Amino acid sequence: MPQHKNSPFGSPSSSPTQQLKEGLKNMVPYLKSILTGRVDNKKTPKTKRSDTKKILIRVFKTYLLPHWPTISFAVFFMILVALATSAKAWIMKPVLDDIFLNKNTEMLSVLPFIIFAMFSVRGIAEFLQMILMNRVTSQASAHVRSQLFRHVLKSDLSFFHSTTSPNLVSKFTQVAQGVASTLIATVVTLLRDSLMLISLAGLMIVQDWRMFLFISTAFMVLYFPLTRKNRNVAEGATHQQHSIAGGMASFLNQSFQGIRQVKAFQMEEKESKKADTFFRNSAGAELKTVQAEAMRRPLVDILAGLAIGMTMAYGGQRVIDGSTTPGSFFAFVTAALIVYRPLKNLSTVGAQIQGCIASAKNIFQIIDSKPTVQNRENAKPLPKKHRKQLTIAFEHVLFSYPSKDKSSASRRYALNGIDLHVAEGKTTALVGPSGGGKSTILNLIPRFYDVTEGRIQLNGIDIRTLTLESLRAHIALVSQDIFLMNDTIAANIAYGTKRCPMTAIKQAAENSAAAEFIEHLPKGYKTVIGENGVMLSGGQRQRLSIARAMMKDAPILLLDEATSALDSESENVIQKSLTKLRANRTTLVIAHRLSTIRNAEHIYVILNGKVHESGTHANLIGKPGLYKKMVTQQKHGDILDTDTHDDLPAPHIRRVS
Q1: Average per-residue pLDDT for the chain
Q2: Residues of the chain with pLDDT > 70: what percent?
Q3: Domain that holds residue 490
Q4: How does pLDDT run across 78-127, given as a tens digit for each residue?
Q5: Are residues 360 and 485 in the same domain?
Q6: CA-CA-CA-CA dihedral for 641, 643, 649, 651, to nearest 10
Q7: Are residue 578 and residue 473 in the same domain, yes or no?
Q8: Contacts 24+ apart (CB under 8 A), 123-129
Q9: What does the alpha-carbon distance between residue 67 and residue 137 come to, in Å, rounded to a whole number?
């Protein structure tokens, strides 16, 4: 196994001696990157300081300020924690000067109660502060996820085509939680440890300001020149982790969903090797992050040890000279030892902030993306007089799918000058080779995409002048890609319908021929069908999809190869259901099986994004052309699926069992 470049310790399969040699060899440049802040990571995007500031301000305003009352109470308890912590150091002076040196019995009798009160206040205050800030974390995390989910649902279909589901899920689980938890952790560290630092510094100044000046100067002279450039290392490692995590989630999801194909083609070993690469990359990125954090901590330890050691020597000499008392000296040293912890915590704030920024950038990239398909400024609902009988007209429609290359020269049109008419209350069919543009035509009607040129009209009204809510309320879609929720059968039939009495649900099931199998289920309409209806057969799932369309009772019906994946028996049942569903509706249907479109009033043959032929079944079968070839082929029980070329292609037969 080759050595992984992200790990300074070489391959896990190498011997311990080799690992040690490789680790020492690779640690030198890594130490250099820690001390200089230079990261060898060309793929990591650089964040300008101005961008970082804007992101931080936005994160605080959006996810922190709404919770300022809760945070204010938490800050109050943080102040109590800081004061109680400082009191630990202050108590050393009366212990040494009054009790051990001056033998003060009165102080000895009071001291235990002071110590008990001090520790009790600190413990209770710290508990309440943690509870309050954890509440803020939970609420901020819910806010991030809610904001992200609402925006994702409003995004264009092109957004989902360019983003894998696992990547999106990771945004909701890891990244969204990372924004909230890292933000609150940073705030807690800054507030709590800064308050503690101020409190202890004040005590040290009161006890001996000369020693405070000495130790502060010694620490700053040693610390800041070595650590001021370290934040780039943490930022680079965090970006790399997010990138690898998204790719790994996508790969794992793909492997698990396609497990039947993996096994059938005996690809287990190859997929395992791909997975090993992801796992090694993830481990290397994680190790890099840990190293960035680990190198800071011993650095603070060493510098703090030097500063405190020098202070002990300086302060001890002052006690010997009589410039200060032993109690003041030990109170000062105790404060110096305690202040080390908040100082060490504050040294990690830079890394926490970079982690928060990296997570926030992932979220804001999605939230800031604007859907291209949205309501126009003066969009209006469909007028009531047009809501029952609707005609659909395509007028010289050109359409190309969104692409990163915006130049018109490189644009490839999926539809190139489409003109077609769907009469009100009638069924119009689209047939033709796969990839010709039939599904694209269907997708343009509910404005899943907007036309590039030309227009689509409902009763003479450009659909872009209508509100999306009104337009889609008048359209029902039955697709071969059936969407069912992990819920009851009744909930799936009623999906998208506001008022759903049980009698209407049962009537829709009856009309779609779904009632016959629903009534045989143990819980009937209350049966939970699993994720995407996994407990049902293909025909049963399709019947539920038809029942849902019947419940919506929309005047426009779009059928996208609704019977393409069914056996003959299931197809016959569903064809009867579709006949009921099409009654008195303006229907546009796509099918390869001509039995689905035989009774259509008009047929369009779509080839290479253009209307190649059009007419009734009788007109088209009576003349040579692509449609006649398809019908001829159907007589042999096959489905014609030709390649898309400008001229009529030689037929390529796809047999369906």
Answers
A1: 77
A2: 75
A3: 426-439+467-654
A4: 999 989 888 888 888 888 877 777 777 777 788 888 888 888 998 999 99
A5: no
A6: -30
A7: yes
A8: 125/77, 125/78, 125/80, 125/81, 125/84, 126/77, 126/81, 128/73, 128/74, 128/77, 129/74, 129/77, 129/78, 129/81, 129/188, 129/192
A9: 10
